[in-house]
Design a protein that fits this description.
The chain has 8 helices and 12 strands. It is an alpha+beta fold. The structure holds (3R)-3-hydroxy-3-methyl-5-(phosphonooxy)pentanoic acid (PMV).
Amino acid sequence: MSAPLHATAVAHSNIALVKYWGKLARAGNYPAVPSLSLTLDAFSTRTEVCFDAQLKSDEFALDGTLVTGRPLERVTRLLSSVRMQAKLEIHARVISVNNFPTASGLASSASGFAALAVAASHAAGLSPSAAEQSALARSCSASAARSLFGGLAMLNVGSDAASPLLGAQEWPLALIVAVTDASPKSIGSTEAMNHCSKTSPCYRAWLDAAPALFASACAAVLRQDLESLGACMEESTWLMHSTMITANPAVLYLAPATLSVIHELRRRRCPEIPAFFTTDAGAHVKVLTLAKHAETVKNWLSAVTGVTRVVVCHPGPPAYLVDPQVRAS
Ligand code: PMV
């Protein structure tokens, strides 16, 4: 069968509850620590890939603007690996649209590379499994490997692909995002994590602590124990940020409003309304709670000075091809 040369896919972003930060010292973009994430229904990327014999090089438009330099190189890297597998020798036009701010700590690279992996491999006529698409996405952005799957997903050290842990419908969770600053981050996550691994005296402690935190968090998910999961999530967040603030020079994604949200959450939460925070390579705060408490927590976060918008997310679906006849798995 000849390749369709054209496909569109949607993938949802994911937020790590137990963080990936740092890479193995081997080729292929493998994380140095295991991670656990929640795929979000509210934030997604829609990507169209069209292989076209008329093109002299790959083209990539993101949110209506043609992209060059390193972001284009990463897209080309993924396309080249698809071309090699499919024995295709033509360039592609990639058109991607995010329904949320790009590169601001809302995991746009996760949803972006997951959608690209699904669209590019189907356009090239490959019929990869979800695991194969996850491995393809991981080779460009490790967090993207997890966005192939809905609900809670995990990525182990040395694994090619992420795998699902608990489906989106299994546990009525909500993740409330307090947007504090929608501008692009000052330093990209790959550059930042490499810098931390080279210069932070806390990096070794992070590598040592991460596997046990991951194991406890996965066990907590399987028994739907929000308090234990939340404790692992906050510990993982602080350990990751400890490698950042002790790097030389320090990497500081935490803004004044980030800390204000965390203080307010710690003041307000109680055994009746359990809620736990995390932050990533950006200033926003994401708070995990049960779906039934989403509105209450949203109101807490909305009242904090410096919070510009609050978005309530629920566990989101796996990545999919837009043609409803052909699902991505
Ligand atoms: O996969 P990248 O390069 O976007 O790195 C993601 C790093 C964090 O978002 C901070 C943590 C994670 O596990 O998603």
